[in-house]
């Protein structure tokens, strides 16, 4: 949909919905690290704002989504917080030769706070589900129901969060090396 890109749909009513997703990331942060300070809360809120004009989630434009929130965080709070946001993406951190930030692990663990039905409803409404499923086609396939895919991806993200290593599970995505 020209003028209503996938990233914007995701932020407005999809998987990265601007109120719900930061709430689940906040809850995961608390589980992992304790209560975030107010600057970290702002970073949690803005970390995915770069999806705003993105026509995809994991394609070339979507992969650059951390840059917008990082610029804002850097301007507001300095390099430490800019990097917290910038490297919340495993892919982006890897491209820059940096380890993923603490925000990466809270972002991945946030799926634990997602009711399956609510996540899938949002992913289907925006059309994100199709890109996400294609990205995991090699590992999971496309023939099983979305609910089974959700359970699988949730398990994969839990594994990733436990070891907190960017390369612990393969980078999914057709364009990602």
**Overall pLDDT score:** 90
Please indicate the percent range of residues in DSSP E strands (runs of 2 or more). Answer: under 5%
Determine the number of helices (DSSP H or I, runs of at least 4 residues).
11
What is the number of beta strands? 0
Largest sheet: number of strands, sense, barrel closure? none
Q: Helicity range of the residues?
A: 55-70%
Helix- and strand-based class? Answer: mainly alpha
Tell me the overall shape.
globular
Distance between the termini: 28 Å
Rg of Cα set: 15 Å
Please trace the helix and strand order, writing H or E for each element. Answer: HHHHHHHHHHH
Low-confidence stretches are 168-177
Structural commentary:
Mean pLDDT is about 90; it is low at about 170-175. The chain is an all-alpha fold and about 180 residues long. The protein is about 60% helix and about 0% strand. The longest helix is centred in the C-terminal third of the chain and has 18 residues, at about 145-165. It has helices at about 5-15, 20-35, 40-45, 65-75, 80-85, 90-95, 100-110, 115-125, 130-135, 135-140, 145-165.
Structural topology:
Elements: H1 6-13, H2 20-33, H3 38-46, H4 66-77, H5 79-86, H6 90-95, H7 102-109, H8 116-126, H9 128-135, H10 137-140, H11 146-163
Key features of this structure:
mainly alpha, globular, disordered C terminus, 177 residues, 11 helices, 60% helix
Give a short summary of the structure.
The protein is mainly α and 177 residues long.
């Amino acid at each position: 949909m020209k003028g209503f890109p996938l990233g914007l749909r995701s932020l407005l009513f999809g998987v990265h919905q601007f109120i719900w997703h930061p709430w689940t990331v906040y809850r995961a942060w608390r589980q992992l690290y304790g209560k975030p300070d107010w600057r970290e809360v702002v970073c949690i809120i803005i970390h995915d704002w770069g999806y705003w004009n993105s026509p995809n989630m994991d394609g070339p434009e979507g992969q650059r989504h951390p840059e917008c929130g990082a610029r804002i965080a850097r301007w507001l709070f300095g390099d430490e917080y800019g990097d917290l946001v910038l490297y919340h993406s495993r892919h982006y951190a890897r491209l820059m030769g940096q380890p993923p930030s603490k925000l990466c692990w809270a972002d991945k663990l946030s799926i634990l706070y997602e009711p399956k039905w609510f996540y899938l409803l949002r992913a289907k409404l925006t059309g994100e589900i199709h890109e996400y499923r294609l990205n995991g086609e090699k590992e999971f396939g496309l023939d099983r129901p979305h609910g089974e895919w959700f359970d699988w991806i949730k398990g994969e993200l839990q594994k990733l969060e436990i070891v907190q290593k960017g390369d612990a599970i393969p980078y999914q995505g057709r364009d990602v090396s």
